[in-house]
Amino acid sequence: MATVVPPLTLGRKLGAGAFGEVFEGQDSVHGRVAVKVMTRASGESAADWHQRKAGLLAEGQRLSAAEHRNVVRVHSISEDAAGDSIQLCMAFCAGGSLQDAYEKGPLPLDTVREIATNVTLGLDALHSRGMLHRDIKPGNLLRNASGVALLGDFGLVTDRLLHGYGSIAGYKDHIAYEVWSTWVTSAKSDIWALGMTLYRLLHGQEWYEAGQSPAATVPAGGYANKLCWLPHIPAGWRRMIRKMLNDDTSRRYQSAQQVLSALSTLETPRWTAKVDTDWVRWELAIGDRLKVVEWSWQSPRKHEWTAWSEPLGTTGRKRTLGGSSAAQARSKTLSELEDFFERA
């Protein structure tokens, strides 16, 4: 039976995905809300839609009980009079999703740690209630008006939907190694997807998409050891994310609480990074000086880098801090840059 909810007025579209469209809305109880409208998928039979619709309505009741400051509040879920669509009414997150930030480039380490801590607390709350997220990615991490990160768009992707619609949902990059063979998700596959999400936020879209496609490489195994890191990412972050992405679920973090413990130990140097198709630039302000590192390339064998410091808001001299002596291979450049950032 459909839930009785206050009448909803839909406004501007906020986004769209394989499982529905999201609109800004108003209702008489909660005021400004976000409304996800889910309809029958292309190619979905009437019987399958009826079954999925019943599951969505039942799951909506469970989601409304998942109250936590780092989980987007679900107010209600209902179907329209004709039975053609489902409306999921949620708290409105004025800060939007982290998809836009990811597309613009790498986020600072301290920002990613704060986001990760917030959403892992939310994930722990879901897991403690016996619930899974199944679709953790930058677009499903939201910020409220205060900038606090929350887990959103959760609970409505079942294992059956993952199997049937994973490709059109753009979800393949976040399918854990074991799910490719079993098509059964778990709390540990949520942790895997969170690890992939953190890697994305640390590197930004330009760098991420230049690397190996997870959908093409994860099923073969060993993906965690094939990650290409921006050289300013400290060793502790790399170890944590590789453990989150371990093929062997017994060697992965066993709970969100363990991820929280790992996050609490991480270093967060305040370098900002910008990535383009053929260069990367880092900056770090320390007092009245600005450290700058630039790495550029013309081909796989022609990479160069240089580092210097310059006055910041004052007069003074530019000081050379390091760099390559000539064009060189990518691997050598990465090694030298990693050494520089470790010492910087």
Protein model, in words:
- The chain is of the alpha+beta class.
- The chain has 3 domains: 8-91, Phosphorylase Kinase, domain 1; 96-263, Orthogonal Bundle (Transferase(Phosphotransferase), domain 1); 276-343, no CATH class.
- The chain is 34% helix and 25% strand.
- The chain is built from 10 helices and 13 strands.
- It has helices at residues 46-63, 99-104, 109-128, 159-165, 177-182, 187-210, 214-217, 235-244, 256-263, 330-343, and strands spanning 8-17, 20-27, 31-39, 74-79, 85-91, 96-97, 141-143, 149-151, 272-275, 279-286, 289-299, 302-311, 319-323.
- Strands 1-2-3-5-4 form a 5-stranded antiparallel sheet, with helices on one face. It has a 5-stranded antiparallel sheet with strand order 9-10-11-12-13. Strands 6-7-8 form a 3-stranded antiparallel sheet.
- A hairpin with a 2-residue loop joins strand 11 (289-299) and strand 12.
- The protein is elongated and about 70 Å long.
- The N and C termini lie far apart (62 Å).
- Residues 165-169 have low confidence and may be disordered.
Write the layout of secondary structure elements.
Layout: E1 8-17, E2 20-27, E3 31-39, H1 46-63, E4 74-79, E5 85-91, E6 96-97, H2 99-104, H3 109-128, E7 141-143, E8 149-151, H4 159-165, H5 177-182, H6 187-210, H7 214-217, H8 235-244, H9 256-263, E9 272-275, E10 279-286, E11 289-299, E12 302-311, E13 319-323, H10 330-343
Antiparallel strand pairs: 1-2, 2-3, 3-5, 4-5, 6-7, 7-8, 9-10, 10-11, 11-12, 12-13
Helix pairs in contact: 3-6, 3-9, 6-8
Catalytic activity: L-seryl-[protein] + ATP = O-phospho-L-seryl-[protein] + ADP + H(+); L-threonyl-[protein] + ATP = O-phospho-L-threonyl-[protein] + ADP + H(+)
Binding site for ATP: 36
Pfam family, one: Pkinase
